Amino acid sequence: MNNTIYTVNRDKQEILMWINNSINPNKNIPANFYDSYSIFVTNNGDIYYDTGGKNGRVDKWISNTDTFVPVMNDNSGSYGLFIDINNTLYCSIYSNHKIVKRCLNDSEMISTTAAGAGIRGSTSNELWNPMGIFVDINFDLYVADCFNHRIQLFKSGELNGTTIVGKGSSNNIISLTYPSGIVLDADKYLFIVDRDNHRIIRSGSNDIRCIIGCDKTGSQSHQLSMPTTLSFDSYGNIFITDGLNNRIQKFDFLSNSCGSTINENILLRELQNGPGPKTKIVS
């Protein structure tokens, strides 16, 4: 967001910010959470984060006043947060196998089910340990259905999903193993964190392929080890939480006459004091 990277430091219970390619954090915000897994930053700089399973809620840090308010009770801990263009907050409840949502314009903290039956399963209306989520401008919900090794698409208002990538999809060219993160870009390309295969997959209407970490796991600049989340900055560069390497990797976006590509061999910036294996980043 505004070319600033935000991450939760689970060990020290704080939110860290790197501004304009800084190597070291420029700001830290002490926060009350236990084992937080997810974060979402709005255009005005407000930060939403889950406070962990022990606290069982989502809190908001208000940037203008430097204050905290609770915004949703999740009773479990969230592995993914997203706010759509109608100011509706979506929360991926990992251990309860569902996605819940709440309109932030309403005064009461009442949430409803957006996807999942609340029990683990692999049918079209079920999820199994969902993680990353994304909601597009049509209010269609994309879910990294982690333990089902698939990406589910729930059309707006529908509780039955369609498998678009991974196990059970009609075009299962690439197999996923515990996918954990997902982002849809403006060109309708789907970027998937294929966690246990240590790679990033890009899926479009005409093709699906690996773009980062395509040879094997490792710690070299072009390799990943148990990545968990990804995010883009305004220039199209990709930031990846590289879990077991304890770092955040930045891969630059290259534009040329033959089209746009991701340079998967050059690491432009490795951020020091990186997050743990299951930390969310927003750039």
UniProtKB/TrEMBL annotation:
Q: Which UniProt keywords apply?
A: Repeat
Identify the stretches annotated as NHL repeats.
214-254
Query: GO molecular function of the protein, one example?
Result: zinc ion binding
Query: Coiled-coil region(s) at which residues?
Result: none
Q: Which SUPFAM superfamilies match?
A: NHL repeat
InterPro entries, sorted = 6-blade_b-propeller_TolB-like, NHL_repeat, TRIM-NHL_E3_ligases
Gene3D superfamilies linked? TolB, C-terminal domain
Descriptive protein name: NHL repeat containing protein
Instruction: Please report the organism this UniProt entry assigns to the protein.
Output: Adineta steineri
The root-end lineage is:
Eukaryota, Metazoa, Spiralia, Gnathifera, Rotifera
